[in-house]
Amino acid sequence: MKLVVVSAGLSVPSSTRLLADRLAAAVDGRTPVDIQVVELRDLAVEIAHNFTNGFAGRSLAAALDAVTEADGLIVVTPVFSASYSGLFKSFFDVLEKDALAGKPVLIAATGGSARHSLVLDHALRPLFAYLRAVVVPTGVYAASEDWGAEGLPERIERAAGELGALMRGLSTVSPAKQPTVVPFAEQLAALSPSASQRRPAQSSPSGV
């Protein structure tokens, strides 16, 4: 399976890239994957040109293809003005609109203060929900004081486990065994005690 890591860190070294690497290593430790890192810092000029001329340069095109073909994504951004960075958003703006549909994504961010931790739920999660990605329940935010402190390693491991489980699950679903869609009315009827007495219990839909 292929795991692509998108890092929007700007400095070298970068705490954003450090968090991205730790998350990728945690996923690989649970579910062996081929890891490819996309450094948006190196693509800034091509991203800007893509907005003005409509064409992706060679490096940007390769990065977009990697994200589209990935079995799972880790996306990490520094916090700017209480949200994701403009470079981070611009990259996903030039991505094809259906590229992330159904794709497992682990969201993460770094910042100077714990006060910005809500960026995960107020900015990143809505963005990837709009792109129809499957966002893992645990997002990871690392403030400056989190490095070397208790809590961050546990959040990294929990989020990595959730992403790995989604990647493994989706890779085992063949086209001939797609999840069965049960109408909402039937789901409600199945939950009724009287309904369960009148007819045999229905088997649960398969899938992840």
TrEMBL record:
Flavoprotein among keywords: yes
EC number of the protein: 1.5.1.-
NADPH-dependent FMN reductase-like domain span: 1-147
Coiled-coil intervals: none
Entry annotated with the keyword Flavoprotein: yes
Keywords, ordered alphabetically: Flavoprotein, FMN, Oxidoreductase
Molecular function in Gene Ontology: oxidoreductase activity
UniProt-listed InterPro entries: CE1759_FMN_reduct (IPR023932), Flavoprotein-like_sf (IPR029039), FMN_Rdtase-like_dom (IPR005025), NAD(P)H-dep_FMN_reductase (IPR051814)
PANTHER family: FMN REDUCTASE (NADPH)
NCBIfam families xref list: LLM_duo_CE1759
Name the UniProt record assigns to this protein: FMN reductase
